[in-house]
Amino acid sequence: MTTRSGFLSFVGRPNVGKSTLMNALIGEKVAITSSKPQTTRKTIRGIVTREAGQLIIVDTPGLHRPRTLLGERLNALVETTLGDVDVIGMCLPADEPIGKGDRFILEQLARYPRAKVVAIVTKTDRVSSTQVLNKLAEVGELREWTLVIPVSAERRDGVDEFIAALIPLMQESPLLYPDDAVSDESIESRIPEIVRESVLEELSDELPHSLAATLTDIVREGNRTKVFVSLIVERDSQKGIIIGKRGSMLRLIGERSRPAIEKLLGTSIYLDLHVTIAKEWQRDPKALGKLGF
Ligand SMILES: Nc1nc2c(ncn2[C@@H]2O[C@H](COP(=O)(O)OP(=O)(O)OP(=O)(O)O)[C@@H](O)[C@H]2O)c(=O)[nH]1
Ligand SMILES: [Mg+2]
Questions:
Q1: 114 CA distance to ligand 1 centroid (A)?
Q2: Is residue 101 a part of any domain in this protein?
Q3: 18 Cβ inside 6 Å of ligand 1
Q4: Ligand 1 pocket, residue 15 CB under 6 Å
Q5: Which range marks the domain in which residue 43 is found?
Q6: Where are the beta strands (DSSP E) in 94-167?
Q7: Structural domain tally of the chain?
Q8: Where is the KH type-2 domain (predicted)?
């Protein structure tokens, strides 16, 4: 049987559910997600294989108006990705009105004429079915779309239909990855992301943009692994918040992160979290380079 395989990337305002949708499509949590905007900071590939072919989903930080050097670098990354993919999926949440941010992204889409563009109405579980229908009609008016698709990643409503609809949009091609691959992310790069996700979920709105996480060391000792993660913030006060009273917050972050890391490594772990300050790292080319941006 001839198969179709190709690349798909999502765009959409921060927090519309791009990473959650990718995880639902591949059936495993590869990308971190959170209720805070700009959770995703790098491109991650997730792979979906069916008899008909393969979708390689490239999760990105999403296009936005940059405010720091980090923001500019993230946008450049997204632009390169979008120039290469076969299909761009624009995500519009069912439970929010279409706004300025969406129109900004719609305008940007004209710069990627190579890709087919589909509209994805996300988070359909948050509204009634009538509201979903109205939203689909409203979205349909915005521009010419190859398809308009509703989905709830949280309830997995429409996820299989989504895959079945997307594979035919790809070019005839053999599978690009082995049929059991789910991601090209290394364990080493997934670990600090899990810790960053825990911090985002535990802490208030002030911190997310200032936070970075890196794996500093990993030592396997039989059925136990020592994992050393460094959390980087911009200010003394932020360091205090992450550590908490007598280290209580840091312990909570550790407890929240441990199960996912143990699952990934298949061993029990000793998790060492260390908090450091790098002033204005989001605007400092040298610091950004060190952090891999
Ligand atoms: N109810 C509901 N919530 C969802 C759904 N999809 C995502 N969410 C929630 O929406 C929030 C944002 O999800 P993400 O997947 O991190 O959003 P994103 O677009 O990747 O965000 P950035 O990486 O920050 O641009 C999280 O709290 C998710 O749990 C859905 O289908 N239904
Ligand atoms: Mg994301």
A1: 27
A2: yes
A3: yes
A4: yes
A5: 4-172
A6: 116-122, 147-150
A7: 2
A8: 199-279
